[in-house]
Specification:
Number of helices: 14
CATH class of the largest domain: Mainly Alpha
Low-confidence stretches: none
Strand content: 15-25%
Number of domains: 2
Mean pLDDT: 94
Helix content: 25-40%
CATH topology of the largest domain: Glycosyltransferase
Structural class: alpha+beta
Number of strands: 30
Radius of gyration: 25 Å
CATH architecture of the largest domain: Alpha/alpha barrel
Largest sheet: 8 strands, antiparallel
Length: about 575
């Protein structure tokens, strides 16, 4: 299996991964968390894919069209050259966004007339069902009778040759359109080109209104566009990553399904969107988070499906061999049932960012006050308990320092919001509890022996999440204890330019590879204590590891530099945006 040299295309409902050789190796229809149609990234033989294969020797190069989400794969040989444009139609029609479940592949002839094979191998239900197909009125229908779902292929090429993977001579521009449960009227190449131009204009116009730093503008723009593609527009939810089970460590069992929305990501996501002045998307995301709380009340869990469903049972797909042989392949995520007490703080911080600190269009009313009250009181109830931490340990329940700090954040932000609502009596009571939490953390979270705040009360292990304490205002960067903690983390968790999450054994042994976001947190910390030049140098080192399309996964192998973990990872791109905006503002 190839490394993560993929581009992402999508329509803010679902998305696909297109390999540098043109193969679409991941696509779930019609939503991000639907069963896969193509899963070649998890099993090249069984998973399913959609690939264009020219005959003879050729080279390829892949790039996005400017600052858009239209992807081009250039094919070149001595005799011929063609360009493959991949995109989901996404543009405004009569005031609404056109985002029907369809994927377009447009082939433009640059010179010559190459012979190509087109291999279209859809596999329904995570590659457990090979569809039957029929050809009628010039289009192909792939069907899954168990679920009454159909996939349709429309093309101006010979569809018989496509389904049989027979050579086709390309003498003029051509297209292929793949739709899900949708029958289209007849298209022409000109109409497909027009849709691509409208999609291109939409994305370039969307990113044009974003505030970008003077340095690394294109890099940050790609992260912003990627984050937008991971947004489920219907609700405002933002998924953690497009994929499932791309391993944190090759051959290990740390393979998780990230196609869902984590409450924890709320604060970081909102901050990144605020940093680039996309308050509209931040509002939509927070509106969704609040709607979840309205629906489920204080029984708030860690993650949800994009449509707000809370049942996400975890199971394994034993029919798939996994990315580079890494098994098991998982769908669903058992972390949904864990106690993680930090989520109240992250959610209240996100609300505070928009409602109090930036005073933008996000509005709260008396009904919303009930939500605020419920979140703060939940934090008060939960803060004394052990939990499973930001890292979602499966069996290691402890008094994690970061979790306690985020309970402090919940009370701190609740006090500000209560004062804004004129609820002085609540603000006074919450202030007292807030101070109690801080006093305990400063006493029990600090380890004088190692000179740092540690992962959990009474432990000697370092944890990169502690780098975020100044971000949330718990302690200043200038505080001697924070400076010593940052230095300890740099000395204890840094290797080859990347910060490990922690140096403690977990459910599966000792960690090996680095979560990319942690290094961005460390860069922010260096900048915060006045080591700006060192922070910039480290930032330059991290971004040298993006793939050819400027995309990042969740993790990186600190020995080889290989991108690993689910891809593309929202957390990594959010952290890149936030760090770049701080370093180069």
């Amino acid at each position: 299996m190839q490394d993560l040299e993929y581009g992402i295309i999508g329509n803010c409902a679902t998305a696909a991964l297109v390999h540098s050789d043109s193969s679409i190796d991941w696509l779930c229809f019609p939503k991000f968390d639907s069963p896969s149609i193509f899963a070649g990234i998890l099993d090249v033989e069984k998973g399913g894919y959609f690939k264009i294969i020219p005959e003879g020797a050729f080279e390829t190069k892949q790039e996005y069209m400017g600052n858009s989400n239209v992807l081009i794969t250039h094919f070149m040989s001595k005799e011929w050259a063609i360009d493959l444009y991949d995109y989901f139609p996404h543009y405004k029609v009569d005031g609404r966004l056109y985002k029907d479940p369809e994927l377009h592949r447009l082939i433009k002839i640059i010179r010559g007339a190459p012979s190509v094979k087109i291999e279209l191998k859809p596999m329904f239900e995570y590659a457990t069902l090979e569809p039957k197909y029929s050809i009628d009125n010039g289009h192909v229908e792939f069907s899954n009778p168990d679920k009454m779902e159909k996939l349709h292929l429309y093309s101006n090429l010979d569809v018989h040759a496509i389904t049989e993977s027979k050579p086709l001579v390309l003498s003029s521009d051509s297209y292929m359109i793949l739709t899900y449960n949708k029958i289209k009227s007849e298209n022409s190449v000109a109409e497909v080109k027009e849709e691509m131009e409208k999609t291109l204009r939409y994305w370039e116009g969307w990113i044009l209104s974003a505030k970008l730093p003077k340095q690394h503008r294109n890099l940050v723009a790609r992260s912003v566009l990627t984050l937008r593609l991971l947004t489920f527009d219907e609700t405002g939810a933002i998924i953690a990553a497009l994929t499932t089970s791309i391993p944190e460590i090759i051959g290990d069992v740390r393979n998780w399904d990230y196609r869902y929305c984590w409450i924890r990501d709320a604060s970081f996501t909102v901050m990144s969107l605020i940093n680039i002045s996309r308050f509209d998307v931040a509002n939509e995301f927070l509106d969704w988070i609040l709607s979840i709380h309205r629906k489920y009340g204080v029984n708030l869990q860690v993650l949800f499906k994009v449509d707000g469903v809370r049942e996400i049972p975890e199971s394994t797909l034993d029919n798939l061999s996994g990315y580079k042989g890494s098994r098991p392949v998982r769908i669903g995520n058992a972390a949904a049932t864990q106690r993680q007490v930090d989520i109240f703080g992250e959610l209240l911080d996100a609300i505070h960012l928009l409602y109090i600190r930036h005073k933008k269009s996000f509005k709260l009313n008396e009904s919303d006050w009930e939500l605020i009250y419920g979140l703060v009181e939940s934090a008060i109830k939960e803060w004394r308990y052990k939990d499973h931490s930001i890292w979602e340990f499966r069996t290691l329940s402890k008094y994690y320092t970061f979790s306690k700090v985020l309970c402090w954040v919940a009370l701190d932000r609740g006090v500000d919001i209560a004062n804004a609502f004129g609820k002085k009596e609540y603000a006074q009571r919450w202030s007292r509890i807030r101070d109690e939490i801080k006093s305990e953390v400063l006493q029990k979270g600090w380890n004088e022996k190692i000179g740092a705040f540690t992962q959990s009360y009474g432990s000697e292990e370092l944890d990169a999440s502690i780098l975020l304490l100044p971000y949330f205002g718990f302690i200043s960067y200038s505080d001697e204890k924070m400076v010593r903690t940052i230095e300890a983390i740099g000395n204890g968790l840094m290797k080859n330019g990347f910060i490990l999450r922690y140096n403690a054994g977990d459910d599966f042994g000792m960690p090996k590879n680095a979560l990319i976001a942690c290094t961005f947190w460390y860069i922010d910390a260096l900048n915060g204590i006045g080591r700006h030049d060192e922070a910039v140098k480290l930032f330059e080192g991290v971004i040298s590891h993006v793939n050819k399309l400027r995309l990042l996964s969740e993790d990186i192998d600190r020995e080889t530099g290989e991108l690993l973990g689910n891809f593309p990872q929202a957390y990594s791109h959010i952290a890149l945006i936030n760090t770049a905006m701080r370093l180069f503002e």
